[in-house]
Amino acid sequence: MAATSKSQLVPRESLADAVYERLRDAILKGEIADGSRLSQVQLAEQYGVSRIPIREALRRLQAESFVVATPYHPFVVRKISPEQVLELIDVRIALEDLVLARREPFTEAEIAELRRINQKMVSASGKAAWFPLDREFHRLLAGSSTLIAEMIEDVRDRVRKFSDSMISGKPGRKAATEEHAKIVDALEAGDIGLARRLLHEHVMQSRAFIKRRLKVVEA
User: Which of 19, 54, 77 is the last residue in one of the domains?
Assistant: First the structure.
């Protein structure tokens, strides 16, 4: 058998990146539960790689506070309390309001794109198709190239497993797209104050749902 050329080998960094993405996605979706102990040996066997990229991926997840190191079980998926979930949503609300307040007036092309995305959401067959479109809609509201938009994405990722169930049924998706349409109408009319208020109410609907689901009692 001919020797494999170096150009065909997958760089170690690429393996670590791939493992990181898969682990992060599994944590965000709730496929790996909060508090789960992550065995490097088992993960290496599961992903068919050595322990080196596993360890590098786990250290990256630790730096981003998705996992924590403990004395006896080196890496454990970080637990997020119900109160912390609501805190993250409050951060999202503040960020979305801030970025909308600072944005230049929306162009006709941007308004048309928001309507196009929202219409696709109306006809989406399920949450697997709906969820990425919702992300796209809010990313366009925030300005896809802004740092604040990246921060909003990170916050949304961290509460994803709690918010997914809200859009699992048609009523939830229908209500969200109707709220989107009102926000776009306000933006088209140039009423940024109304758009900000509608966006705040829109995200607060998600917060209220998650609060009920987690049975959080606030003072």
Answer: 77
- The tens digit of pLDDT for each residue in 3-22 reads 444 444 445 558 899 999 99
Q: Supply the range of the domain harboring residue 62.
A: 11-77
Model pTM score:
0.80
- Crossing angle of helices 170-188 and 192-214, in 10° steps, is 160
Supply the mean pLDDT for the chain.
87
Three-state SS at 1: coil
Domain boundary among 77, 105, 120: 77
Structure tokens at 111: 């308004």
The DSSP symbol for 37 reads B
Give, for 186, the enclosing helix (H) or strand (E): helix 170-188
Domain count, the chain: 2
Nearest to 36 by CA among 73, 11, 90: 73
Round to whole Å and give the CA distance between 81 and 13: 33
Distance from C-alpha of 124 to C-alpha of 178, rounded to nearest angstrom: 14
Residues forming beta bridges with residue 67, ordered by sequence position: 77
Our separate counts of H helices and E strands in the chain read 10, 2
Mean pLDDT of each 10-residue bin along the chain, 219 residues long? 45 80 91 92 91 93 93 87 93 94 92 96 84 92 85 90 69 89 96 96 90 79
As given in the structure block, the two tokens for residue 142 are 């925030």
Length of the chain: 219
- Which CATH number fits the domain that encloses residue 27? 1.10.10.10
